[in-house]
Design a protein that fits this description.
CATH superfamily of the largest domain: Ribosomal protein L10, N-terminal RNA-binding domain
Order of helices and strands: HEHEHEHEEHH
Number of domains: 2
Strand order of the largest sheet: 2-3-1-4-5
CATH class of the largest domain: Alpha Beta
Distance between the termini: 106 Å
Strand content: 5-15%
Number of strands: 5
Number of helices: 6
Length: about 170
């Protein structure tokens, strides 16, 4: 077997492993980006813990086909950038920001989120959703509010009892 074919097989295996480990994989068309714009985009992804790569479409298609997913065969044409994200929304949010800043240069294609195909409109919806951590924080905050209110009511009742007892003690002592 040729060294080039062996190298391609290794890359396909690497891509397949990244797909398995990622919660979401987002594809965009990135025509006309300057080096500075790509560097800025890579820095944003790196800060969010998202891996941004550009692979050959045939290698991406082969990796997905090896995993039994054929939904992306039509989307993997032309220049394609891919982001492997450890959560469902991070890559979509970063691409959404980039699309607002560079609407003619970055166009969403599709995504693979928790084992399901998501179209370009779905990427926009993902970008507006709060992350899992944000949802947990909101839920815990809403659960904590009634407890805090109950503690405040008990504290006020105890304060009232202490004031009443203090007033009775003053009357009897006077």
């Amino acid at each position: 077997m040729s060294a080039n074919l062996e190298l391609k097989k290794q890359v396909v295996e690497e891509i397949a492993e990244k797909i398995k480990n990622a919660k979401s994989v987002v594809f965009v068309d990135y025509k006309g980006l300057t080096v500075a714009e790509v560097s800025d985009l890579r820095n944003k992804f790196r800060a969010a813990g998202v891996e941004y790569k550009v692979y050959k479409n045939t290698l991406l298609r082969k990796a997905f086909n090896d995993l039994g997913v054929t939904a992306f065969d039509n989307d993997l044409n032309g220049p394609t950038a891919v982001a492997f994200s450890p959560d469902e929304t991070a890559a979509a949010k970063i691409f959404a920001e980039a699309m607002k800043a560079l609407p003619e240069k970055i166009v969403p294609k599709s995504a693979y989120v928790d084992g399901a195909y998501v179209d370009a409109k779905g990427i926009a919806a993902l970008a507006t959703m709060p992350s899992k951590e944000e949802l947990i924080a909101k839920m815990l905050g809403s659960m904590q509010a009634p407890i805090a209110n109950f503690a405040g009511v008990l504290s006020a009742m105890l304060r009232g009892v202490v004031v009443a007892l203090s007033a009775i003690a003053e009357k009897k002592g006077a």
